[in-house]
Design a protein that fits this description.
The protein has 327 residues and is an alpha/beta fold. The protein is built from 11 helices and 9 strands.
Amino acid sequence: MSTKADISVIVPCFNAERYLSTCLESLRVQREPLIEMIFIDDGSTDATGAILDAFARTEPRAQVVHIPNSGVSAARNCGLSRAGGRYIAFVDADDALEENGFALLYQAAMRSGAQITSANHTLFDMEKNCRVPVQIEPVVQQPLEIVREIIHMHRIYNNLWNKLYARELFEGGLRLDESVRIGEDALLNLQLYLHARRVMHITEHTYVYRVHAYSAMANLGQYSQAHQPMLRGMNAILQKEGVKELYFRDFLQSCVWVDEKETGIRDCMKRFNAQIRPLVLDGVEAARIPQKDERLYRIVRGGRFPQYYMLLRVREKITKKKWGIRR
């Protein structure tokens, strides 16, 4: 494009021929603001590459890059290296934008000066032909509070595809971790929100996440094992940014709940001290633990957390009050 785009839209594509036409049409009708579409054909073996090339011949805002299969993170990183717009947006090839999706996000970003602008989205079950709106209640507008939500795997803040990001956030070389297959978007958002000065969330639904049998989240296998690289990456980021102690309780909760979801409470607690506790305590400086979490830290460090947690869960049943945030 000869004119600089307002938004660079990065679309990684791998064997997406079943769903690609809907995605392409939803991008074609985005008339404001000015967008450039960067499609990364990630070594597809079906007709994806040909469909993209045909689309680009009729759509001057589109460019297609064909690369050997390297995974969705590498494809997105490839797109980031080519993006020239003022803002960055990510779209998955099997999803779609609402007709005015980018206009709503862009207008909010320009109005507020936010470096990250997020929006609500809609889940569309393709087999049941059912739309379910997903929205934040209450809305959080503080970056450091959103970081807490991301650690707890928030259903909106963790995703890359319902947001606009100021390109300046990536200019220091920030990219997706290509070694992480599940939760790689959460790890990038964790860093982006830690670095953002101002953020914004709008209540409009701008994106349609299409659920089908081939969706990544429909084929996780062993839940806990699949999420361990993400938890290790989260641990490394929190340490690097010097905030692990600030989010000690939140990280502990997520490590526990990821394992508990697969193994159940009792088995999770049986393996806590040997398999979960080392990651929770890794790199933590006792002197930097917030006062409100000092007792909890001592319980974990002293190996007494399994007994403490079992009592907490009993109390939850009695009081109906959850321990922290559970997604």
